[in-house]
Structure prediction request, 257 residues.
Amino acid sequence: MNPDPALEPALARARDILAQSPRVAAFSGAGLSAESGLATFRDPDTDALWSRFDPTELASLEGFEANPGRVIDWYNWRRSKYAAVAPNAAHRALAAQTRMIQITQNVDHLLEQAGVAAERIYHLHGNMLYDRCHNRNCDHHERVDLDKPRQLRNCPRCGDYLRPAVVWFGESLPRETWVQAERLCRELDCLLVIGTSATVYPAAGLIDVVRQRQSRVIVIDPNPGAASDVADVHLAGPAAALLPALLEGFDLASTAR
Ligand code: NAD
Ligand code: ZN
Prediction:
């Protein structure tokens, strides 16, 4: 897929910025995985579970405490979709940058599947590939088979419920991951922002961290939004066409060589 020729001048400006930036990291949202077939948060989805329930109620502590079985069934339905998709050209273009850190709000496994080493991915909102114990004082984790996720069950260690290892509305981000991401953003020369509405905080605040140090922001998103408002360059198109064109020939790094 080739990028829209009208975007050539913006692409050239973005490539100039990258060429002058010793430290670059990516910050992605649901739009990165949209072309793999995973719905973004905002996309209308015809599937019954999305239309019958409010995702913000299901992806919350209150929702889980009110009806844990329903929440697990909903996540298992999402997991069945995750099992059926593959990385797209945007994930692959990011994976080819083997020295770049991927900060992502996505809870899917498509960056890993594209070949990004796990230690180079900061999953700010957790990861659907794992369940964890709902009891904060128990650190039991289990890998989940996306094809055959299991129904509501209890922790083998403490007896509380197991739940997806993702961050729900009203919950804090995984502390260590957040600290690492914020520290990294304070040292970057450029942040590549891909497919996020930049409305979910504190994650979206990373863009402000980068702006505060006068570093550059390049946004790839077909739609304008909070991130493109503060961007040096907004590449207004889909990530799977634009990222390969943007990154071709670069070997970007996130930390000093
Ligand atoms: P969002 O749905 O709020 O925003 C998605 C953004 O992607 C929009 O700005 C949209 O214009 C853009 N977009 C759509 N198609 C695109 C494409 N082909 N290329 C580039 N951009 C495209 O998503 P968000 O900002 O990530 O925030 C929603 C929250 O929901 C996140 O915290 C995330 O954890 C969660 N979520 C994750 C997944 C996933 O893991 N795949 C999917 C849905 C929601
Ligand atoms: Zn437990």
Notes: The chain has twelve helices and nine strands. The mean pLDDT is 93. The two ends are 33 Å apart (CA to CA). The first helix runs from residue 8 to 19.
